[in-house]
């Protein structure tokens, strides 16, 4: 005999599967595991987008505080160009002190930016803005790193000017 459970506020009865088979000689039909199911192209794109958001959410939540989480997600959704997106995300991943004293590679007598957070940023960007080939991805990342280094230099000059203003 099957059990009945009330569903939500509509008080609609929903039958549950019986806990014991009604006829022991009858076996249940085989269930195809999800990894073997046929998926249409439109389902693949929806699943890919869901996976990107899942990966993105996990990366974002591991790198920023819960308070910054929604702002980062908002930037990822609204920004249309990868390099502009990265530049808007930098303050959520690095402090202005870190940016002013560092660069992406630790060259020119500067400290390197934290590689874990930088790689997380890279993962987010290429999840949001996929690139076809590895060569194109590396070329794009090299260009983005140049923009990050420019932002680091700008932050250094802003800090320097702010310090001079306080001294007066």
How does this structure look, described?
With 168 residues, the chain is mainly alpha-helical. The protein has one domain: Orthogonal Bundle (Arc Repressor Mutant, subunit A), CATH 1.10.10. The protein is built from six helices and four strands. A two-stranded antiparallel sheet has the order 1-2. Helix 2 packs antiparallel against helix 3 (82-93) and helix 3 (82-93) packs antiparallel against helix 5. The longest helix is centred in the last third of the chain and has 34 residues, at 134-167. The radius of gyration is 25 Å and the shape is globular. The termini are far apart.
Q: Secondary structure elements and their pairing?
A:
Blueprint: E1 4-7, E2 12-15, H1 41-63, H2 66-78, H3 82-93, H4 96-101, E3 102-103, E4 111-112, H5 115-128, H6 134-167
Helix pairs in contact: 1-2, 1-5, 2-3, 3-5, 3-6
Tell me the name of the CATH class: Mainly Alpha
Relative strand content: 5-15%
Total domain count: 1
Q: Report the biggest beta sheet as strand number plus sense, adding barrel if it closes.
A: 2 strands, antiparallel
* End-to-end C-alpha gap: 86 Å
Percent in helix: 55-70%
Return the string of H and E elements. Answer: EEHHHHEEHH
Output the structural class: mainly alpha
Number of helices: 6
The pLDDT mean sits at: 74
Superfamily (CATH H level) name: BEN domain
Number of strands: 4
Characterize the overall form: globular
How many whole angstroms does the radius of gyration measure?
A: 25 Å
Give the low-pLDDT segments: 1-52
User: How do the strands of the widest beta sheet line up side by side?
Assistant: 1-2
Kindly report the CATH topology. Answer: Arc Repressor Mutant, subunit A
């Amino acid at each position: 005999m099957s059990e009945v459970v009330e569903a939500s506020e509509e008080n609609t009865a929903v039958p549950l599967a019986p806990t014991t088979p009604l006829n022991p000689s009858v076996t249940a039909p085989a269930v195809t595991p999800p990894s073997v199911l046929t998926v249409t192209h439109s389902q693949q794109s929806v699943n890919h987008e869901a996976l990107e958001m899942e990966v993105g959410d996990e990366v974002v939540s591991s790198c920023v505080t819960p308070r910054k989480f929604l702002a980062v997600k908002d930037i990822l959704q609204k920004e249309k160009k990868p390099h502009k997106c990265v530049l808007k995300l930098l303050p959520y991943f690095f402090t202005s002190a870190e940016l002013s004293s560092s660069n992406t590679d630790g060259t020119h007598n500067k400290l390197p930016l934290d590689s874990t957070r930088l790689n997380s940023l890279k993962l987010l960007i290429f999840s949001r803005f996929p690139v076809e080939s590895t060569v194109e991805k590396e070329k794009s990342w090299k260009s983005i790193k140049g923009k990050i280094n420019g932002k680091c230099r700008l932050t250094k000059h802003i800090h320097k000017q702010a310090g001079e203003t306080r001294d007066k």
